[in-house]
Amino acid sequence: MYAMNPLRPQRAVTLIEVIVVIAIIGMLIVLLVSAVQTVRSAAHRTACANNLRQVGVALHQYHEVYGSLPPGIAHPRLLPGIPRLYGPDTDAYPLLNWQGRLLPFIGQESLWSQVQEAYIQDPYYLNFPPHVGYTTFIPLYVCPADGRRVRPDTPFDRSPGTTSYLGVAGTNEFRGDGVLYMDSRVRFADVVDGTSLTLMVGERPPSLDLLRGRWYGGWGYWGSGDAFLGVREIYSGSSQPGCSEGPYHFGPGRLQDPCSTFHFWSLHPGGAHFLFADGSVRFLGYGTDTILPALATRAGGEVVGLPD
To answer: What predicted TM-score, i.e. pTM, was given to this entire model?
Structure first.
């Protein structure tokens, strides 16, 4: 048996070996981060779809109670002396989005009572307060992939509560051939194209400046981009300089692009979730843009099949 020679030099780790080890560790970290992102993205998609399903249940319950879906938004109540542009002021909650009307059906009865009291104090929806619901964050109305956002120029407690889900107005806000648009009160019996083939709500992250994407009350063109959106939306305003008139299409968007607020999209890879009038939720890829106009109308008579 040989004894170890204490004077024998030991083999040292070479620089190349160190570099190889570091490279392997780096690759493992990249793979780990990618795996974590994939899991997080899948979790966000699942949670987002579940949010929409709950919204669908609430819309069906509202329909059962009132005999129709809520209006996408009610037209503004005009002050005396202003020329009337709409029908009679029969709605008790002018400029309140459809999501605000669902509060009693999503476990927000206390907040709904505050909304009702606010409209008693300020029936024209002009001031904050009393419309404190305007700043209330409701997790159900926000896709986890979008997160909570606040206006950069507004204190946190005065920043509007955002929404990731807009009603489908149909082709565009002016046609009103969908199910949720200004002064709409669509019944499921009116959806003659079939509730399983008609879109009701779709995803679109709120804009960074929050000019569009609030669940409480709509302004814009009285709700377009806040409460509802068409699948071939036409933009005719001036709040977003540099944006074309359209029509806009379902496709990838960017948070930094203000023009992305005029079409449905999501932060999920490849497409976005849509809630159908029968209460089902499907993830539609951007390649389905060509059939979206047929799915968005309630009585267009189109023949369309959904991809598997």
So the answer is: 0.85
Tell the residue number behind the tokens 């377009």, with chain if given: 224
The secondary structure of 221-239 as a DSSP string is TTTBTTTEEETT-----SS
**Nearest CA-CA partner of 219 in 126, 141, 84:** 126
CA 50 and chain centroid, separation:
13
Write out pLDDT tens, residues 281-299. 999 999 999 999 999 999 9
* One-character DSSP codes across 253-295: --TT-GGGGGS---SSTTEEEEEETTS-EEEEEGGGGGGHHHH
Query: Long-range contacts of range 122-128, CB-CB < 8 Å, 24 or more positions apart?
Result: 123/77, 123/92, 123/94, 124/76, 124/77, 124/79, 124/94, 125/76, 125/77, 125/93, 125/94, 125/95, 125/96, 125/217, 128/158
Quickly count: other Cβ atoms within 10 Å of residue 153's Cβ: 8
C-alpha torsion angle, residues 231, 190, 60, 265 (rounded to 10)? 0
* CA 179 – CA 55 distance, rounded (Å): 14
- Looking at residues 81-92, what average pLDDT do you find? 83
Cα–Cα distance between 252 and 269 in angstroms, integer? 9
Give the integer Cα–Cα distance in Å for 272 and 265: 6
